[in-house]
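Batch manifest, entry 17 of 40.
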Amino acid sequence: MTLPVADQWYHSTQLDDRTHLITEPHVHPIFSANMHLVLGRDADLLIDSGMGIAPLRPIVDHLRPDPTKPVICFSTHTHVDHIGAAHEFSHRLVHPIEAAELAKPSPYSLDSADIPQRFVQLFADAGYPPLWPYLVDALPYDAYDLHSYAIPPAPATQTIKDGAYVDLGDWQAEVLHLPGHSPGQIGLWHAASGTLFGADAVYDGPLIYEGPDADIDAYKATLARIRSLPVQIVHGGHDPAFGAARLAQIIDHYLELWQSR
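Output type: structure tokens
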């Protein structure tokens, strides 16, 4: 199967004066994770790093007014769609539970035929569209070899736990441990603006709550914790941002769904 070459691999959108959203539009929706770049006075912050199919650092630096400033790569968890380009950044944060996977990522394939059937069924049951023949519908450049895809090791330069803060000088956000989807998943709570970077704990699309890393009891507690926050806007690990009313709808839907579990 021959795939076309994409005009550009990444797409960026400025969400506010400080925040940019970076996406990979040629990656299947299941694996097309949001990356958020938050600009700060003393450092900039990249929340997650996508699949790593094409170099990410050039677009990140293009969006930063001062590309010589330090940039922190914050991995919310270590599923393939969130850590692909972490190795491109010298300052890497992750929860201790996920640190081993970041240091030695599990092998993964872009060929959908190589995805275990239990995961294919899990995605279908969650409500995602069927997988494409490959996890992408284009190539990042002409000579790209789909079968050579691998995530390079990116050992954490620092592990970070619940209650810690990420400080950019003029912007501080609290680290929240949000297990359920993944045991060491973390998000960021910017209380001053009511902004939650919720990773894959909550987004406006089918949540993945089953699988080898998932824990529904932990997920229930995570959603209850999020519900208690005075959230104004959620930037999730997938899909567009949304507000407090939609957040309440999503949480209520899943807590009701899991009530008997």
